[in-house]
Amino acid sequence: MGGDRTRGVLELHDIQRGVLSPRPTPYAATYILLRIDHPAHGRELMRRASTTVTSAADSISPLGECWVSVAVTYHGLRALGVPQDSLDTFAWEFRQGMAARAKALGDTGPSSPENWEPPLGTPDVHVVLVALAPDGAQLETAVTRARSTFDTLPGVTLIWRQNCHALPTGTEPFGYRDGISNPAVEGSDVPVSNQLEPPLKAGEFVLGYPDELGAVQSPRPEALGRNGTYMAFRKLHQRVAAFRRYLKDNSTSAQDEEMLAAKIMGRWRSGAPLALSPLHDAPDLGADSHRNNTFLYRHDDPAGFTTPGGCHIRRGNPRDASVAGSPRLHRMIRRGTAYGPPLPENVLDDDDADRGLMFAFIGAHPGRQFEFVQSEWMNSGVFFGAGDEQDPIVGSGPDLRDFTIPRRPVRRRLHGLPRFVVTRGGEYCFIPGLRALRWLGDLQE
């Protein structure tokens, strides 16, 4: 093992599978939040979880086709009895918690923590269990078995659950194919989604390995920090009717409406990128995982005439474009799972149903990855010369925002974009390695 550590080879057997592997398709999923009321019972939960979680080296889960991930918040680590000198070595953002970081993340107005769904953002959230399966029946069977890790522990209380699922359309609630872009991680066996992007150093996503700057970050002791990572999960309510109505009200035809939707996202709803199909949708391209993410910007579209610099996917991942800061230092693994019933096709009025995405960021540097992208790229346009313009999809500023579409001879300027996404809550978590789960289980009073 010492040789592997020296060379920085990923110890896949000790990394939770949910860290590196994309979600299955189709899928059913659930988020379960637990509160630890008795440290000894919380530690027993960690011991049991270490035998339930699937590692990145395993193709078969202890729960069959269902994957289970276990994450712990800062308050959860304290409840388990982790010493303060160890807690002090974790990332600052993680220690503060997401509610305390609301201003930096743009969670204001209707998205501010006082409007979050209880118990999200409170000190009661200690453990996050995430399970995914190919369908609801398999998920429930696996969750029933997984409940045995805490159901017999009176000192562990289930305080919240959110079920998620693949929509019948195979898209996220706004109607776009999701889960296309995934960074290549050096040393993993995860398929590359962009053939033109060199793999990123493992330390960008897994603690205890060299990152793009050559640094090695890991909480102490090594038995706790190595092979872990951070997760930010957020419940994002999507105002689907408002989005549809805005597109229709600002289009002259059905074709223009689809083009506007593509310019706002950077992709057609099929998943075909504007970079490879600028004039019309190409569903076959959108469905082709070997081609639908293989493109760059710097030489083919530096000014954003094809893919606007302010569109959602270019803000989230500028690729090789010239922007403030190196895009490779801000790459992150994203997971999105839909929740709630789909709004029926062509309906333009809100039905008051709760629908949206459970969003999860995974990375070793929550500050320069998730928070940087959220504050500097999503909620500001300075990095590419667009002033105070925000992301047209998830921008968190006030209603009546603007969005610019470069074109010749005159750019198109959209006004009055309402807030399409509202944060309903979330938290920063630490995803321990399997050895760390056992270490947490063996803590002494």
From TrEMBL:
InterPro entries cross-referenced by the UniProt entry: Dimeric_a/b-barrel, DyP_N, Dyp_peroxidase
DyP dimeric alpha+beta barrel domain: residues covered: 66-151
Keyword Glycoprotein: no
Cofactor: heme b
Keyword annotations: Iron, Metal-binding, Oxidoreductase, Peroxidase
Coiled-coil features, chain-numbered ranges: none
Any single Gene Ontology cellular-component annotation: cytosol
GO MF entries: heme binding; metal ion binding; peroxidase activity
Similarity comment: family membership: Belongs to the DyP-type peroxidase family.
Database matches in PANTHER family: BLR4509 PROTEIN (PTHR30521:SF5), DEFERROCHELATASE/PEROXIDASE (PTHR30521)
UniProt-listed NCBIfam families: Dyp_perox_fam
Protein name, entry field: Dyp-type peroxidase family
Species of origin: Sphaerisporangium rubeum
